[in-house]
Amino acid sequence: MRHRWKWISALTIAAVLGFGWWLRQRPSPPVPGPLAAASAPAPFPSLWPASIPNPALAAARKDDHSDEIEVCGAGKVKLDRDDPSAAGKYLNARAKNSRLRWLAALRKQQASVRLTRA
Prior knowledge:
Elements: H1 2-25, H2 33-37, E1 68-71, E2 75-78, H3 86-117
Antiparallel strand pairs: 1-2
């Protein structure tokens, strides 16, 4: 009985792979002339974060405040313009205490799980 299921599984996998290979080998249908000549509609603006312009990447000018970022809960924070990792360093320093409390809570929970299993 077990031997039969192996064959059925192997044949199913082979059929799926064969169908996929057949779909890739088919020639694509030709595009009709009048539809191909029609103008394409205007692209819909993407809402993905990659499409949002990043003001930090723009060239720094003296009249703007590009050396400041706004951090939720902290307000505007002055950063060094010449250090590309300044924002990361600032946020790591701000989050250090909460990260340490979180790790301590995880360790405490792990220790209590070990005690209950023992």
